[in-house]
Amino acid sequence: MSLLDIENLTVRFGATTVLDAVNLTVDAGERLGLIAASGSGKSLTALAVLGLLPAGARVEGRIRFDGRDLLTLGDRDLSALRGNRIAMIFQEPLSALNPLMRVGAQIAEPLRLHRGLSRGQARTAAIALAGRVGLPDPEHLVRAYPHQLSGGQRQRVGIAMAVSTGPALLLADEPTTALDVTVQSEILALLDDLVTEQGTALLFITHDLAVLAQVARRVLVLGAGRILEQGDLEQILRAPGHEYTRTLLELARAASFRRSAEVGR
Question: What residue stretch is flagged as signal peptide (predicted)?
Answer without folding.
Answer: none
